[in-house]
Amino acid sequence: MNKLDQIQKPIELEMKEFEPRFRASMKSRVSLLDKIMHYIIKRKGKQMRPMFVFLSAKAFGATTDSTYRAAAMIELLHTATLVHDDVVDDSNKRRGFWSINAVWKNKIAVLVGDYLLSKGLLLAVENGEFELLKIMSNSVREMSEGELLQIEKARNLDITETIYYDIIRQKTATLIASCCASGANSVNVSKEIVEKMRLFGEYTGIAFQIKDDLFDYGSNGEKIGKPTGIDIKEKKMTLPLIYVLNNANSSDKRRIINIVKKHNENKTKVKEVIDFVILNGGLAYAQKAMNIYKEKALAILKEFEQNEANIALAELVKYTTARKK
Fold first, then answer.
1. CATH topology for 3-322?
2. Residue 325: which pLDDT band, with cuts at 50, 70 and 90?
3. In angstroms, what CA-CA distances link 184 with 46, 66, 132, 189, 222?
4. pTM here?
C-alpha cells in the first residue's frame, strides 16, 4: 500500500462513491463532449483535491451530499483550468498523455473548459449551494488574477518575495484553500472553523507550490532527480531565484537576469543559472520557507480534535512537501 492509499483510509468509501457521482456530473447529450469527458476521467491524476474536501469534512462530522457536491465542483473547476492552461501554454502533454488541445485542437479545448466550468457552477446553483458557489467563484477569480499577475511581472522580472507569495497564493493555494473550506462548510460547522480550514488549505497550498519550485532545480533541494530548468525557460521567477537575486551583487544580478530574459533556451546558460542558485543558498532558503508554511498548516490542525481524518490531513500535508514528483 503506497502512502496516498494509507492517507485515504478514513475516506476510502467516500472516494469510491465519488467516482460515479463525478462521472454523472460531467454527462452531456453531445456525443463529442461525452467522448472527451470519458478521455478526461480515464486520465485523472491522484485526486488530492477531493481528498482534501472529504478529509476536511470528516474531521468535523459525517460526510453529506453537500460534501460530494463540493468535491465534484472542485474537480470540475480544477479540470477546466487545466484544459485552459494547456491551450494557453501550447502544451501537448498532460501527465504523460496527450492534452485535449493536442487531440481535438484549441477551439474544442477552450469550449470543453467552458463546459466544465459551467457544469461546476450549475451543480452548486441547482442544489442551492450558495456558500459553496461563493467559495469557488472567489477561487476562480483569484486563479485568473494570479496567472495574469505572473505574466505581467515576467515581462520585467521585477518580482519581490511579496509579489511571489501573492502569485502562488492566488494561482495554487486558493484552490486547496477552497477544498478545505468547502469540505468543512458541508458539515455545518461555524464560520470561524470554515475560515481556519481555508487558512490551513492556503498554507498547505503555498508549501505545495514551493515544493514544485524546488523540483525545477533537481527535486527536494537535494541531489535527487535531474534539474529541468523549465521555470527559467518560461521566465518564471520562483523563490530560490528571487532569494539569490536579492542577495547577489549588481553584476551577478544583471548577468542572471540577462540569461533568464534573453538566453532562456540555451541549455548551458540555464545550467549556469541553476548552479548559481544552488551555490548561493537559494534551495536551502526555499526549503526552509516551505517548512515554515507546512508547520503553520499543521499547527491549525492541532487546534481541533485529533480524530482519524484530522491525522490523515496532517499526513497529506507532509506528503505534499516530501513527494518526489
1. Farnesyl Diphosphate Synthase (1.10.600)
2. low
3. 21, 10, 11, 6, 36
4. 0.88
